[in-house]
């Protein structure tokens, strides 16, 4: 993507598998450092950094051989030593708050190489701010002192010490309703981000030889003139409004250093993308069986048991008809997938830029597309739920499940009577709408992420979740499958990050043009006296 500000460095903190990094790299920024503590996510970051060491469209054949399982990671890196060495320097396996601050600072300075303009990306792990996380710890006396509340302090410290031109701060929507020590968490974070040197004054009583920097905070969705001081919904990005096939709502702040003279644009709304548009070309798969021998015939028998009168008792006629019709089509889904499947794919009905974003003709198949094992009784619930959704155009609530399909769980009776999270325990993704939010919970059991196609009768694969998150198809997730699900669920959608990066790039372009016309302007720290 052409730019008048090429090779602007960017540093990504709490990077996860690199959703923000991917979007900014595709927009022409130079990802010089990504810091991540999780070993599997770090391996994913390192591999993607290796891929980006080659010009667009010119990654070596060996990269694709590795994705197809034909070459080991060690051999891949051994054959391309200089690119592997740079990738290892960029993707740093470290934990902020554990690694010594002077080591972190030295690593950042080395990566930036005295760049005048650069970007800081990231957001602290969000489980302490999320609504679900808070509800699970409502009576926990240690909640206020949880270290996850204070991880953003490490982000602030880096802001204060290294003074990036622009920063992106991302977190869950629950941040807006969270309170810490009786104070609204968002208000505290917003004030700190505007003046990050306060954290050093609070800690040390002074800022030493640092030049303090302040920041103006902007929304990506409401023009700055309409909200000079963003609050609440002003900073919530609803991803489905911007071409992401997922209803993912996140707080994302744009911070611009106060000495930069530049206005920020806002995101432009795009057409809503239904889940089926990005999933329907992927190979059809069946689930595997757990707690009993697997195999196609055994799986077919287990699923077909739902046709018994005892299991169809109480099912409404339209859903019952859909179940019987589906059972006649089950032979279409025989494969369980794997690390790589050779197949021809083609995304139709998508905006061309999004289709191009996903596809890589050199790949020749699909990665990370493997089903997990499900219990026989869960398969019956999935079949019922998917057929109900196909018939009624919405997922069933718990009270609509026939008694024989209800799980033996202490929250069932409560979920049937009250509006609780458990009431939506078995959630089918609808083909005609963006998916619900893909979260790291997908790693646990898949009940919230049931495939809309009842003939596949399963939860989503890692690749399907990655498609909903808009990761390109040639983006391989490392680690075992549970670790892969966690990485996908924790990420920022890269195609959304691309749109944020375009806005950031234009801010820098304007700032640099304006600074060139002001002879008294010093880009490294403001106006000369």
In short:
This protein has 529 residues and is an alpha/beta fold.
Superfamily at the CATH H level of the largest domain?
A: Vaccinia Virus protein VP39
The CATH class label of the largest domain is Alpha Beta
Strand content: 5-15%
As a percent range, the share of helical residues equals 25-40%
CATH arch. level architecture of the largest domain: 3-Layer(aba) Sandwich
Tally of DSSP helical segments: 20
What is the residue-averaged pLDDT? 88
Reported for the largest beta sheet, the result is: 8 strands, mixed
Total domains, how many?
A: 2
Cα separation of the termini: 38 Å
* CATH topology-level name of the largest domain: Rossmann fold
Structural class: alpha/beta
Q: Over all CA atoms, what is the radius of gyration?
A: 25 Å
In total, how many beta strands?
A: 16
Point out poorly predicted stretches.
130-146, 415-420, 520-529
Choose one word for the global shape.
globular
